[in-house]
Please model this.
Amino acid sequence: MSGAGRSQAADNLEDLGWFVIDNLPPALMPKVSELAQAPGSGYEQVGLVVGASGPDHGEVLESLRALRSTDARVRVLFLDASTEVLVRRYESTRRRHPLADGDRLADAIERERELLDPVKAGADVVIDTTELNIHQLKARIGDLFGSDRAGNAMQITVESFGFKHGLPLDVDLVLDCRFLPNPHWVDELRPLSGRDEAVKDYVLGQPAAIAFLDHMNKLLRLLVPAYQHEGKSYLTIAFGCTGGRHRSVAIAEEVAEQLRARGERPAVSHRDIDR
Model:
């Protein structure tokens, strides 16, 4: 989506060593891929940045299908954000939306959303930047596309969030941790977070937490290989509690540790820990 951080993501990819082409006409995507794969080209990681900003936006989906039919390893990243936030971003920068044609800004954004919905549906990973600042987006791009991410390994992200701040949109599995006692009501634990040992001991020592983590471990032992077998490139697991500071953080950290013990290299993100 325009205004969701496309240019920032392109800059982040360049910082990671990718060769990035911004505002590429969709029809040229297969040709650029062909040139990049030619012997001696020297381009191992190429990022093509496209959107709904031109008259040929309808070719995006067709060009992606053509790319996926080649020998190239194609990963599609879709950046999204809420309409309200996109409106605020455009108003603060005084930029014109590419599809604005005398209509209200919100109407132009919704029209773009409708045009790009099929692309979003077929994306390998969707990042919702509604609640992300530029530093958090950079970290997320680094986790997903950094050079230390091995070849065809599935990238797993474990995330915590607070339900009162809204559900994250870019996740595959959502687990509710509000069945556990809330450290917020323990005076000495309230100012701490789920990263602190005292909170971790309190949360993870609950019988319900022990049983939950045991079941979660068994579930992921089933799901991770199955998703990998089906060719899934990214798996994002989100744990939520009321505010996203105590229970969900402790559980997310523990699940990430379980994954590391099995040889996985999960990225960990705590969306609302500082709220």
Remarks:
- The chain has two domains: 6-145, 155-270.
- The radius of gyration is 21 Å.
- The chain has a mean pLDDT of 89.
- The beta strands are 19-21, 46-48, 77-80, 125-128, 155-162, 173-176, 234-241, 267-270.
